[in-house]
Structures are given as C-alpha cells and as structure tokens.
Amino acid sequence: MTYGVCGLAKERPHVTKKEIVKTISDKTGLTQLQIKEIVQLTFDGIVENLLDEGRVELRNFGVFQVKSRKARKARNPRTGRQVDVPEKFVVTFKPGKEMEARVQKLEDAAAEKARIELALAEQKELARGQSTGGGTLPGDASQPIHHEPN
After folding, report:
1. 105 with 117, same domain?
2. Most buried residue, 12, 76, 91, 146, by CB count within 10 Å?
3. SS3 for 67?
4. C-alpha span between 127 and 121 (Å, rounded)
5. Into how many domains does the chain fold?
6. What are the recorded GO MF terms, alphabetically (predicted)?
C-alpha cells in the first residue's frame, strides 16, 4: 500500500470510521470496541448539538453550522424545464485556523512537487536533444527554415 502526502492510502480517496477507530485504538491501547463507542458518541453529540443549537465549535478544528438555503428556481438539465427547489437546511463546515494552515502546507508541498516534476521533465527533454547531436535534423518540418540573403 502506498501513502500520499498526508499519510492516507492512495488507493482509496477517503478514510472510514473503522480506520479512524483502529488508528486511535493502536495509539491508546484501548480496544477497538471501546474506541468505536467513544467515536460514535462524539458524532452523535455533534449531530444532537447541531439540531438543538445550530452550531458546534471545536477549537483548533472547526465549526459545524446549520444554515438555511432559500427556495430558488432551477433548470432540469435533461428537459430544460424550470423547476422550483424548496428551501432546505444544510450543514456547513468551516475549518479552524490550525487545520487551514496544515492544509495550506499540503497545497504548498503539492505545488513544489509539481514544479520539481516539470523541471525534471524539461531536463530530460534537454538531455534527449543533446544526445541526438544537440539540434534538429535537416528537413525537420517542426523547425522554421532560415535563408541567408544573397
């Protein structure tokens, strides 16, 4: 199994609750059953407080909030007909400053990796050009023909 920048398995684009439980169990020495109950109680508590209060703030993590989306008109992409979309409630999440900073580091690392890969590709291309004599062959249609004036 290979791991990505943030230590997550590349084969799967997500982490399951079971994997979170196993990781915490391995770190704490508590059984997976104990951790599963704690994790589920935590999730249930977040949901209950969202329903009761409309907002759950977890310092250094982020804020969950229930927001209302107004009713609106939309268009059915298959038929092109206009439809009414009723008002609905959605849960939003705004990451905390610490999480934002850590994600930014991932973005910076990904940008640096892309920059390095581009530089390596350019170096390979340059090396290929030098191994064939450092230029184009006569009659190469991709290169413009320059004539000297008489």
Report:
1. yes
2. 91
3. strand
4. 10
5. 3
6. DNA binding; structural constituent of chromatin
User: 125 lies in a domain?
Assistant: yes
Whether residue 138 is contained in a domain is answered as no
Give the three-state DSSP class for 133: coil
Provide the domain limits for residue 127.
96-133
List the one residue out of 1, 2, 32 whose CA is nearest residue 17. Answer: 32
List, for residues 19-67, the tens digit of each pLDDT value.
999 999 999 999 999 999 999 999 999 999 999 999 999 998 999 999 9
Is there a contact between 85 and 71 (Cβ–Cβ < 8 Å)? yes
Q: Which pLDDT tens digit goes with each residue over 73-88?
A: 999 999 999 999 999 9
Task: Find the CATH number of the domain harbouring 89.
Answer: 4.10.520.10
How many Å apart are CA 30 and CA 34, to the nearest integer? 6
Is pLDDT at 12 greater than 70 in this prediction?
A: no
Tokens standing for residue 55: 């907002």
Q: Which backbone phi and psi does 2 adopt, to 5 degrees?
A: -105, 155
Whether 96 contacts 60, CB under 8 Å: yes
Residue 85 sits in the same domain as residue 113: no
Rounded to two decimals, the pTM is: 0.60
